[in-house]
Specification:
Elements lengths: L5 H13 L2 H8 L3 H15 L4 E4 L2 E4 L1 H26 L5 E6 L1 H8 L3 H7 L4 E6 L13 E6 L6 E15 L11 H5 L3 E4 L5 H8 L11 E2 L2 H9 L4 E5 L4 H6 L3 E2 L6 E11 L6 H13 L9
Parallel strand pairs: 3-4, 3-5, 7-8, 7-9
Antiparallel strand pairs: 1-2, 5-11, 6-9, 6-10, 6-11
Helix pairs in contact: 1-2, 1-3, 1-4, 2-3
Length: about 300
């Protein structure tokens, strides 16, 4: 089967989005009759009914609306690919999705070394808090926390994260708290890890029950909330180094740091790995700690 003509697909997508052939004609700078011909040609070529005709208005069938959504996604990806090609005709760009706090605190300070070693590669960073579909967004790879359970991907472990509970000195006038006292304090939660506090208490041998407290979407926000005395934050060690050294955050319990997960570089397994990503992955392997170089 031949691919439908691009102008007809654009007309279908616009009709689904705008709701009338008149609006489609205005957006595409065509006459209304030209739009109608393109839509009719598309219907004939596909051999299916795409439109519900009545009251002098065109409406897409439910099946056609689903097809139009696929067309829209495809056109968006083509536009993004064309823009990337214009900006980087040599193919040396790497499009990376990063977790905001880990990306800014761990990756970005190390990137100058990569750019010195690979000046031909441009690294473009976009923050994403949750896993996404590599097929629907134009990323070559992503930084991911937790377990390497992203479907149809390869992964490289970067760093094991260790966490501790910290609070401002004003909340700890008597120093570190007992587990029972700690669970009664205001605890700060992060949206992407709703069970983090419960898991931490479990590592201490305690089932704490309900743990109410305010929720934040990023570690940087939790860090600021803890600094201002809003509650106790379960913070990664790499994120709180400066604040601990300055004494503006103190341990809220005497337990040693514990690990609740690791950070990974994740990339799609269903496509060839671009040269820029190969260079970046090999460079990252040299940046991991010795502990994380163990077989995995």
């Amino acid at each position: 089967m031949h691919l439908p003509p691009l102008p007809a697909l654009r007309a279908l997508e616009a009709l689904d989005r705008l709701g009338s052939a008149t609006a489609v004609a205005q957006e595409l700078n065509l006459t209304q009759s030209a739009v109608s011909r393109q839509l009719k040609t598309l219907e004939e070529q596909l051999g299916v009914t795409l439109f519900l005709r009545g009251n002098r208005a065109l409406r897409l069938t439910p099946q056609a609306r689903g097809f139009a959504a696929t067309v829209r996604e495809t056109l968006d990806r083509l536009t993004e690919a064309a823009m990337a090609l214009r900006l980087d005709p040599s193919g040396g760009a790497l499009h990376l999705a990063i977790l905001p706090s880990f990306g800014m605190r761990w990756l970005v300070p190390r990137l100058p070394d990569f750019t010195r070693r690979h000046p031909e590669v441009t690294v473009n960073l976009t923050t994403r808090l949750r896993p996404f579909n590599f097929g629907a967004e134009p990323f070559d790879a992503a930084l991911h926390f937790g377990t390497p359970d992203w479907p149809d991907t390869h992964h490289l472990r970067l760093m094991r994260e260790t966490v501790q509970p910290f609070a401002a000195p004003s909340l700890l006038p008597d120093g570190p708290q007992s587990l029972d006292a700690l669970r009664r304090m205001p605890l700060l939660h992060i949206q992407t890890r709703p069970q983090a506090w419960a898991s931490w208490f479990a590592t201490q041998g305690m089932a704490p029950g309900p743990l109410p407290g305010p929720t934040f979407d990023q570690f940087t926000a939790i860090l600021q909330a803890a600094l201002h005395g809003l509650g106790v934050a379960l913070l990664p060690d790499y994120l709180s180094t400066t604040e601990r050294a300055a004494g503006s955050l103190l341990p809220a319990h005497e337990a040693s740091p514990v690990s609740l997960g690791s950070y990974y570089l994740v990339w799609p397994a269903d496509r060839p790995t671009p040269p820029a990503l190969l260079a970046f992955r090999d460079w990252l392997e040299m940046r991991t700690d010795e502990e994380d170089m163990l077989p995995r």
